[in-house]
Design brief:
CATH topology of chain A: Thiol Ester Dehydrase, Chain A
Strand content of chain B: 35-45%
CATH topology of chain B: Thiol Ester Dehydrase, Chain A
Radius of gyration of chain A: 15 Å
Structural class of chain A: alpha+beta
CATH class of chain B: Alpha Beta
Helix content of chain A: 10-25%
Number of domains of chain A: 1
Order of helices and strands of chain B: HHHEEEEHEEEE
Largest sheet of chain A: 6 strands, antiparallel
Oligomer: heterodimer
Radius of gyration of chain B: 15 Å
CATH class of chain A: Alpha Beta
CATH superfamily of chain A: Hotdog Thioesterase
Largest sheet of chain B: 6 strands, antiparallel
Number of helices of chain A: 2
Helix content of chain B: 25-40%
Strand content of chain A: 35-45%
Shape of chain B: globular
Strand order of the largest sheet of chain A: 1-2-6-7-8-5
Number of strands of chain A: 8
Structural class of chain B: alpha+beta
Distance between the termini of chain B: 11 Å
CATH superfamily of chain B: Hotdog Thioesterase
Chain lengths: 140, 145
């Protein structure tokens, strides 16, 4: 991937999603805390939907860094299951770590975790399945 | 939550749009409410910022997930009296077809309302109500009044 920024889609950019690094197939992304992401104005905790979006985006990213992945190939989320463990700390960045632990010809399976500072103390975890090789052509 | 208390005091507990306007992320997504009696439909107008795949173009999976979650919570708040916003415990999303660059609609059903946990199913669609774009099933932790 030569231009990493270009792989962050419009909505990823809208929530401020940033790429950090990839280590041994583990992708780390960051969503800096921002006012427009708040879900509970009384506490300043960010909305669950932000976490969903970041986990979904991170999960797709984890597929793209798997060995032998053709960057022209498209993919689509098939299902995404998220468990919310605790609120994301107000004012703190949300980090996402995602790993594709199995990729078959048609399907990729991804685990991901959302956390503030310690991945062992998660804000949320997710498991996802992505369908690979979906048609990536403009609709007529 | 302050806004819930305020709406209750003003006798506007059914004004879900006022509630949504107080949730920054819901306002940012641009979610609107259409209520006919006890039937609530959430509306998500399309805009370029919501795109996840620019080639198709298709809505971002996260937008779909967030819209399903908001639709579920709105229905839950309408059906119950709550002190605070319900907390999402888990949500499971099935992506059925890609979300096109048009307006999206959502509806939810509270399938079971326990003392602490509510079970909610939601579905979203675009031009045709029979062709769901995505469906979800979630558990929410309630803080009753």
């Amino acid at each position: 991937m030569s231009d990493l920024a270009s792989t962050i889609p419009a909505f990823g950019q809208a929530i401020g999603l940033e790429y950090r690094d990839t280590v041994d197939g583990m992708v780390t992304l960051c969503v800096p805390y921002a006012e427009h992401l708040i879900g509970d104005p009384d506490t300043g905790v960010i909305h669950g939907g932000v976490i969903t979006a970041a986990l979904d985006n991170g999960s797709g990213w984890a597929v793209r860094v798997t060995e032998g992945w053709d960057l022209d190939m498209a993919m689509a989320t098939l299902d995404l299951r998220i468990d919310y463990m605790k609120p994301s700390a107000p004012g703190e960045d949300l980090l996402i770590r995602a790993e594709c632990y199995k990729r078959t010809k048609n399907i990729a399976f991804i685990r991901a975790v959302a956390y503030n500072s310690d991945p062992e103390d998660p804000v949320a975890t997710s498991v996802a399945a992505f369908m690979l090789g979906t048609l990536n052509q403009p609709r007529v | 939550m302050e806004i819930l208390k305020q709406l209750r005091e003003e006798g506007r507990t059914q004004d879900m749009q006022a509630l949504l306007n107080h949730i920054p992320f819901a306002s940012f997504l641009g979610v609107e409410i259409d209520r006919k009696g006890n039937e609530i439909t959430t509306i998500l107008p399309f805009r370029d910022e919501l795109v996840g795949n620019p080639v198709l173009p298709a809505l971002h999976g996260g937008v779909i997930g967030a819209f399903l979650e908001i639709t579920s919570v709105i229905q839950l708040l309408y059906d119950t009296q709550c002190e605070r916003l319900p907390k999402t415990v888990d949500i499971s999303i099935d992506y059925l077809r890609s979300g096109r660059a048009v307006e999206t609609y959502g509806r939810a059903i509270v399938t079971r309302q326990g003392r602490r946990i509510a079970n909610v199913r939601a579905e979203i669609w675009q031009e045709e109500i029979d062709k769901s774009v995505a469906a979800s099933h979630g558990h929410f932790l309630m803080t009753p009044v």
